[in-house]
Specification:
101 residues; mainly alpha
Length: 101
Amino acid sequence: MFGSIGLPELIVIFIIALLIFGPKKLPEVGKSVGKAIREFKKASDELRTKVEDEINATEIKTEIKEVQKDLNSVTSDLNELQNSIKKDIKGDEPREGQKVS
């Protein structure tokens, strides 16, 4: 924003401010402008931080959902394996009255 303002422009602005506010008020005006700029920077930094935190929270929630899907898939596979093993064990057991060879 202020990238195109050079030394001659700043001198003109200072002279105009000196004429408008006078030499006694100019330090107070400068202090007020500096304070306003600091407040603006602080508010913009806080806003940026909040936005970044929200983006990170959203990414974390997405990753948690993916992990939950993977965990559900693994759990389902383990249950199928357990049922398969139970069927195999029951198929190998001798039934009543059957001789074990």
